[in-house]
Amino acid sequence: MRSRAQWSFVLLCALLSVLIASLNGTATESFRHTHHLSNGTSPGRRAGASGISCNMFRGSWVYEESDPLYDSSTCPFLDPEFDCQRYGRPDKSYLKYRWKPDACELPRFNGLDLLRRWKGKKIMFVGDSISVNQWQSLVCMLHAAVPDAKTTYKKNDTLSTITFTVPSSSPLCSFFFSLGLPSPLFSKFAKCPNIFYFAFSLDLTSPELMQGGLMAEHCDDKPFGF
């Protein structure tokens, strides 16, 4: 029985490695395609005179005067413990940094464009309070991108929901945030302590309606195993 569990673990690791490699290659190739088109070159040609294609994961944080993309004091979805300004941090320079790949430029974040592009797809955050912070930052950026939206935020112990209702010229976006519900997939294959799982999805059902989901799940407080 133990041998079978060990082989299952090895197989799972192999499958995860293949999946991660595939996703990494897809993301890089997708960005390479967009970068080439934005520079007037064909997707099949390498970017730049150096002949080196862009790796969006290799770069550094650079100062950007136009940032941040949202004001923490006006975002209603940010937990107090994540709001440094609220607790008296005097400077704001730490908010003015963006990621700059070594070989190319990333387009500036466009919340409405993200909502349209990610319809029917999912983004998953795996981690602890840092992932909660990232999730809240994403929601705040989307909130800043659709300032005319009417928002409804309902929060309780097991399920929190955020709903964006925007003018008819833009999509209607609904976000659902669930905390503490074990995922059938991860509770089976990755029982680990103090880890939150987030799934983000958007589905365009009509020109005037876009629905989405944000779900956080806490796995069993047990060692990794099967």
For the structure shown, list the relevant keywords:
226 residues, 2 domains, six-stranded mixed sheet, 4 helices, disordered C terminus, signal, TBL_C, signal-anchor, transmembrane helix
3D structure, described in words:
The model is unreliable at 8-16, 18-50 and 170-226 (pLDDT under 50). This protein is globular. It has helices spanning 2-38, 111-117, 129-145, 184-189; strands at residues 59-63, 97-101, 121-127, 150-155, 159-165, 173-178, 196-206, 209-218. The N and C termini lie close together (11 Å). It is of the alpha+beta class and 226 residues long. 30% of the residues lie in helices and 25% in strands. The chain has 2 domains: 1-56; 58-218, no CATH class. β4 and β5 (159-165) form a beta hairpin. The strands form 2 sheets. A 6-stranded mixed beta sheet has the order 3-7-8-6-5-4, covered by helices on one side.
Give the secondary structure arrangement, pairings included.
Layout: H1 2-38, E1 59-63, E2 97-101, H2 111-117, E3 121-127, H3 129-145, E4 150-155, E5 159-165, E6 173-178, H4 184-189, E7 196-206, E8 209-218
